[in-house]
Amino acid sequence: MAHLSLYRAFRPATFDEIVRQEHVVRILKNQISQDAVGHAYLFCGPRGTGKTSVARIFARAINCKNPKNGSPCGVCETCKALDGGSLDVTEIDAASNNGVNEMRDLREKVQYPPVTGAYKVYIIDEVHMLTDSAFNALLKTLEEPPRHAIFILATTEPQKIPATILSRCMRLDFKLIPQTDLEGHLKGILKEIGKQYEDSAVSAIARAGAGSDRDMLSIAEMCLAYSDTLTYEGVTAVLGGADFMQMSELCERILTGRQSEALSCVEKILSEGKSVGVLMRDTLQFLNHISIAKTCRNAEELLCLPKEMFERVSAIAQTVDPRAILRASDVFTKTEMDLRFVSSPRICFETAVVKASMPAADYDIEALMQRISALEKRLENAGGMIPSAQTVPTVDLEVLPKKTQTVEENYDFPTEEPIFDEPYLPVPTKVEEPIAPPPVVQQTTVPSTVSSDAQETFGRFMRTLRKTHRNGVLFTMCADLEAAFESGALVLTTESETVYRALNREDNQAIMRDVFASIGVLDYRVCIKGRKVQNDRSAIEALKRDFSDYPIELK
Ligand SMILES: [Zn+2]
Question: What pTM was computed for the model?
Answer without folding.
Answer: 0.54
